[in-house]
Structures are given as structure tokens and as C-alpha cells.
Amino acid sequence: MMASSSISSKSFCSLSTCLFFFIALIAFVEGQSVPAVYVLGDSLVDVGNNNYIDGSLLKANYPYNGIDYPGGKSTGRFCNGKNAADILGEKVGLPTSPPYLSNTSSLFLKGTSFASGGSGLFNSTGQGFLFKTLSLPKQVDYFTTLQARLVQHLGAAGAEQHLSKSLFVVVIGSNDVFAYFDNNNKNKLKNVTPDQYVDEMIAILQGLMKQLHSLGARKFVMVGLGSLGCTPAQRFKSNTEDCNSDMNNMAIKYNNKLTAMMAGLQSNFNDINYTYFDTYPVLYDIIQNPTKYGFKEAKAACCGLGKLNAGVFCTPLAIFCPNRKDHIFWDKVHPTQETDTILVNVIYSGSPPYVTPMNAQQLIAL
Ligand SMILES: *[C@@H]1O[C@H](CO)[C@@H](O)[C@H](O)[C@H]1NC(C)=O
Ligand SMILES: *[C@@H]1O[C@H](CO)[C@@H](O)[C@H](O)[C@H]1NC(C)=O
Ligand SMILES: *[C@@H]1O[C@H](CO)[C@@H](O)[C@H](O)[C@H]1NC(C)=O
Questions:
Q1: Which residues sit opposite 221 in a β-bridge?
Q2: Deepest of 104, 128, 132, 232, by most Cβ within 10 A of its Cβ?
Q3: With respect to CATH, is domain 35-365 assigned 3.40.50.1110?
Q4: pLDDT digit string, tens, across residues 324-358
């Protein structure tokens, strides 16, 4: 771009070149310092891995999922539009990290997503006849394979540099909590208290975090559990459409232990930094005060059938609302794109106590 001759030669740059520098600076500040985003987690951030798992019904690559996604496409996202992984990618200035199982690259130099709908910390969570998912341990296995390829391609020092600047986003635990309250699981877990269960979850997560650290991960975005007991699926089970407070209490318990675990990890390692997003109070406030956020419907799902549209998941046989922007929930467990946008805004640029010890923007700047 050439400076216009009508501008005094003393000025640092012309309007157009200044604009160029300004945009370049913003791009640098906002995005260029993150080479890659690695996403690990469940359906809240699955961008299509489950499409590639054969013999499983745990998929969302059919209508009316994706009705508000560019092109109205059902991509495998459990959402009406873009999900939290897409929105975070946009903030960071990188394209959405593509599904690892898509094999669209062997190195995924700008990141990849291992996230898989239905998954949890326990290998057994979400698995069953016709139900298959990538547990978080399995996702870390896949990352281990990818990291070895990166070392081969970039060299040990190159891979170390690349990974130390990358973001590792971890969104997991909801399905493990759902599983604890699942009647089919109740007998098996009869003697496991909520405290013990949550302790086991955290112990598995801690082991996986240490594994990620040993492979070079240094910057983590840890997403806490939301008010799971207030999802339409749980209100459906209540005569009065109330939240399941036992489930909510387990989510809070998990979040408290996750916070302590991360603080411990940081003091152990001395070379990690992280953002912890306390999803619970943020989502709960949206549900309690929907109009404050521009929502009209806090209880019912947009897509489904039956009471609160929470009797079934969103399939072509279900009905869906015309006014998705009014709804907090897309289906009986997943938020709408509108809700995800609010949540990711807090992750990216929010303040304590909702994001601690720093937000994602500050984490990136380190
Ligand atoms: C991806 O590669 C793996 C290993 O080579 C193979 O088993 C799998 O079928 C491939 N998946 C796709 C979607 O091409
Ligand atoms: C869970 O699966 C991973 C492999 O994906 C395996 O390494 C680990 O041992 C399994 N954990 C348990 C408790 O079976
Ligand atoms: C990043 O983490 C290290 C220890 O892991 C700590 O010494 C440092 O203060 C952290 N940076 C910020 C900005 O918190």
C-alpha cells in the first residue's frame, strides 16, 4: 500500500497506511501469538469428530442441528449454529480447529479438535450399544500421537516452542455428572458418594493434565461445569419444571475441586498458566435473569418434542422454534449459539470471579 502524496511527508503514515498498520497491529495483538488451538472435550465443543465414529448414534450431523450455521449445514455440531469452539477460534483469530478424525491434515499446524459428543473423563461415560465416543483419555492418546509427528516435523525445540504458545482448551465433565444420575448407572454406583465420584473425576483429569504438560502444553483454558441441573432435560423430570439441585450441587463441587487442582498443578510445575472459567454462576444468572441478556425462554429447548421440548433430542422428526435468539437452550442439554457467544465473551475478556486467575486474552498475551 502506497502513502498518498496529499498527506504531509512529515506524518508518520497516511490514512490508508495507518489503517493498514492498525489492522496488522490488532491482528498481531489478537491472534498471531497463538500458533494453534487444541480442543479437548465433549459435545459442547465437538465440531464433527463423532461424524467419523462408525456404528454410533451419538451424532448431530442431521437437521435441525446447524440450521443457523453458515449454509444451514448440519456439520456434527450439537447446536443451532456455531458452538463455543468456533466462537473462541474467531476471537483468537484462527479458523476453527478441525476434527482430528477428519484426517484433513497430518500435522494440524493451526490446531485440531479431539472433542467428541457424549464423552467424559471416565472411559465408560457415553459408551454403550450403538453409543461410541472418544473419552478424554482417548483424546489425550491421540494428542500424544500428533505430538510425536510434530516433533518429527518441527524438531524437538520447534515443537516445544509451538506447543508452549498454543492454547489447550478443555471442556469436560458434564457427561460424567449426567452418568452419575442416570438410573441405569445408579445400581453400579450405589456405594459411591458424590464426593468420591468427583474426586475420581479430578484424579483422572489431573493425570491427563500432567500428560499434556509432559508433551509440551503450557497454556490451558479450563472450562468449569454449568448449572447442569437446570437444562431442559432435567426440568423435564420434575413435575414443577424445577432444576435438579443435587446435580447442580455436584457441578459446583466439581468446579471447586477443579479450581484447587489447577492451582496445585501450577505451583507444582511453575511453567504453566491457565484461564479457569466458572461457567456455573454465569450460566445460572442467564437462566435466572433471561431478559437481562435478551432471552425470552429459559426453560424450554428450542428443538425437540414433548414437555419443554425436552422429551427427545433434536432430530428431523422434532419441532424447532422460529426464534432461536430468544432461547438459552437449543436442545435438551446444549446451549444455543446466542448463549455460547455470551459465555465465550466472558472466557475471552471477562473478569474475576468468573474467569481466574486471568482471561483468555491475557493468557494469550503472556
Ligand atoms: C484417517 O486415518 C486413519 C489411519 O490411517 C484411518 O484408519 C481412518 O479411516 C482415516 N479416516 C478418514 C475419515 O479418512
Ligand atoms: C482409559 O482409556 C485409555 C486409552 O484411551 C487407557 O490408557 C486407560 O488405561 C483407560 N483407563 C481405564 C481406567 O481403563
Ligand atoms: C504464569 O505462571 C507462572 C508459574 O507457572 C507464574 O510464575 C507467573 O506469574 C504466571 N503469570 C501470570 C501473569 O500469572
A1: 169, 275
A2: 232
A3: yes
A4: 999 999 999 999 999 999 999 999 999 999 999 99
